[in-house]
């Protein structure tokens, strides 16, 4: 009774008989749980209700509970069959889990024991290794010391190779064989010391001392030779610098002499020019004086003739007139000698009358750019653009076949004829920037390093922006840009600043770019084929024309174009009206 009171005073006020508790549940227990003794069943029941080990204590016949566990106590004391059945199920589940936890703990304990055994075996092996190593070091200590010294000497000898690499060619050839021989001997020494017997160690030590002196001597010789080579290199560079300075001074002296000679020639030329001008002025002055004297003589002769005639009339004597050369005979003969096309003596009126006899004839109609501007929607229909492109590619094919590139393909340089036979025939004009890209034998001309920018900025290819030599593919790229402008009203880079035009063209040429898709599927495929051409490719003009065939809508090249039908088809085209 005293122990019970102490237990209740220590915090276990509630109690019950676990025997009676077992008997109340015994009738409902399954066979597996019915074999359990009352104490074990009560413990399983408490744990299934969520009580910990320190929440209850067993006496001889009773079990005691801590304060605050009244809800669990009331739950297990209920005699409700349904509650009792649920508690029995919980007991069974807890028992299974407890046994599984015990199995886990057993496996964990076995693994821990295995690891502990392996650890102790490793420690024993380590102790044995340390002991064996200590005994081996005691036995072979002298041999180990010599071996370590030999290995250190072999490692330091690697410096010989580094010094050899810094020598010049002649010195390297001189020392290479001896250096490699020394390194090979050191490797043999290390192998010999490693396998030497105790009685051979003294000989190995003597060989080591010999090789120490040999390596030190060789390194010193190599460093000395390296220093001499560096001095020779500095001397060579100094002489080269002096020679370069001498050549530079000689060049400047020659330039100054050339400038002085040029100045003297200019001064002599100016003196000769002044002398020539003075001589011409003197000749003009003499000619004027002679002309004035001749006029005076002629005037005097006319006066003399008039006086003589009057005297003869007064005396009744007739004088015979002396024939004289016509005044214009000399000038006319000079004009004949100078040739039929000499215009130096023509007056302004004669020149004006001759020029006004010329005539200007109009051979071509408006260019494609002007025809596009006349459209109410400022664009052309896909069928018209496709036929223009097909004829433009044919014109470029003829130019490329002759070995030339146009370099300025744009709508303003494409016109149709004005006659009945040529009004549907496209003419490519303005060949002021053409350049031969093939030699007469058909080989490509060598590209120039800095060909310069040629063409119109809006229609030039990206290669032209990069400053590269133009090829036939660049003409076709300009043709593609021209077709896109005819379809889209304006090109995307028309309003872009000059520095950003190249990037805008790069974005336009990206496959399935927004602006490229606006041109339609057939034209997008054509542009993709043109943009993929490399500088070394020979364009297949016929294949490019075939890509545009479906875009013509079945119309032939001789059928009416947009401007002949009052731009009727442009209102139904699928391209956008502005960019």
UniProtKB/TrEMBL annotation:
Residues 278-579 form the Protein kinase domain. One of its GO terms (molecular function) is actin binding. The keyword Calcium does not apply. It comes from the Eukaryota. Residues 1-78 form the Myosin motor domain. Keywords: Actin-binding, Motor protein, Myosin. GO terms for cellular component: myosin complex. Gene3D superfamilies: 3.30.70.1590, 6.10.220.10, Transferase(Phosphotransferase) domain 1. Its EC number is 2.7.11.1. Pfam families: MYO6_lever (PF21521), Pkinase (PF00069). The keyword Repeat does not apply. Residues 228-281 are annotated as: Disordered. It is an enzyme of class 2 (transferase). SUPFAM superfamilies: P-loop containing nucleoside triphosphate hydrolases (SSF52540), Protein kinase-like (PK-like) (SSF56112). Belongs to the TRAFAC class myosin-kinesin ATPase superfamily. Myosin family. This is non-specific serine/threonine protein kinase. The lineage of its organism: Eukaryota, Metazoa, Ecdysozoa, Nematoda, Chromadorea.
């Amino acid at each position: 009774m005293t122990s019970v009171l102490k237990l209740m005073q220590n915090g276990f006020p509630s109690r019950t008989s676990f025997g009676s508790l077992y008997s109340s549940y015994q009738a409902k227990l399954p066979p597996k749980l019915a074999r359990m003794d009352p104490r074990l069943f009560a413990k399983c029941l408490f744990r299934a209700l969520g009580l910990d080990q320190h929440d209850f204590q067993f006496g001889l016949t009773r079990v005691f509970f801590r304060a605050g566990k009244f809800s669990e106590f009331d739950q297990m004391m209920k005699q409700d069959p349904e509650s009792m059945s649920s508690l029995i199920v919980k007991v069974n589940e807890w028992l299974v889990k407890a046994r599984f936890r015990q199995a886990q703990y057993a496996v964990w304990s076995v693994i821990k024991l295995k690891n502990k055994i392996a650890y102790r075996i490793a420690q024993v092996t380590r102790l044995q290794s340390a002991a064996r190593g200590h005994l081996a070091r005691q036995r072979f200590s002298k041999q180990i010391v010599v071996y370590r010294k030999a290995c250190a000497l072999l490692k330091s000898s690697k410096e010989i190779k580094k010094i050899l690499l810094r020598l010049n060619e002649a010195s390297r050839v001189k020392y290479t064989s001896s250096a490699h021989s020394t390194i090979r001997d050191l490797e043999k020494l290390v192998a010999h010391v490693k396998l030497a017997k105790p009685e051979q160690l003294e000989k190995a030590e003597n060989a080591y001392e010999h090789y120490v002196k040999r390596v030190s001597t060789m390194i010193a010789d190599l460093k000395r030779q390296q220093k001499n080579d560096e001095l020779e290199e500095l001397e060579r560079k100094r002489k080269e610098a002096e020679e370069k300075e001498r050549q530079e001074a000689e060049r400047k002296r020659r330039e100054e002499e050339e400038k002085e000679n040029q100045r003297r020639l200019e001064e002599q030329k100016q003196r000769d020019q002044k002398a020539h001008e003075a001589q011409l002025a003197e000749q003009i002055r003499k000619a004027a004086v002679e002309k004035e004297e001749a006029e005076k003589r002629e005037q005097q002769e006319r006066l003399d003739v008039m006086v003589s005639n009057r005297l003869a009339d007064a005396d009744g004597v007739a004088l015979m007139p002396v024939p004289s050369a016509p005044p214009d005979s000399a000038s006319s003969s000079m004009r004949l000698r100078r040739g039929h096309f000499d215009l130096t003596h023509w007056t302004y009126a004669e020149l004006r009358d001759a020029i006004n006899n010329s005539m200007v004839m109009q051979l071509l109609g408006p260019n494609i750019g002007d025809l596009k501007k006349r459209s109410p929607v400022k664009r052309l229909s896909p069928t018209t653009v496709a036929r223009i492109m097909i004829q433009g590619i044919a014109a470029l094919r003829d130019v490329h076949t002759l070995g030339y590139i146009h370099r300025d393909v744009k709508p303003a340089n494409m016109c149709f004829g004005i006659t009945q036979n040529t009004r549907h025939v496209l003419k490519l004009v303005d060949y002021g920037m053409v350049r031969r890209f093939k030699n007469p034998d058909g080989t490509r001309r060598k590209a120039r390093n800095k060909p310069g920018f040629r063409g119109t900025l809006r229609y030039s290819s990206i290669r032209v922006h990069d400053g590269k030599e133009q090829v036939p593919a660049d003409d076709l790229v300009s043709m593609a840009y021209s077709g896109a402008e005819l379809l889209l009203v304006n090109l995307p880079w028309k309003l872009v600043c000059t520095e950003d035009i190249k990037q805008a063209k790069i974005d336009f040429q990206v496959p399935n770019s927004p602006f490229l898709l606006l041109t339609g599927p057939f034209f997008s495929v054509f542009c993709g084929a043109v943009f993929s051409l490399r500088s070394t490719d020979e364009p297949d003009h016929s294949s490019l024309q075939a890509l545009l065939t479906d875009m013509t809508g079945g119309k032939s090249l001789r059928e009416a174009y947009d401007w002949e039908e009052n731009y009727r088809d442009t209102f139904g085209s699928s391209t956008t009206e502005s960019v």
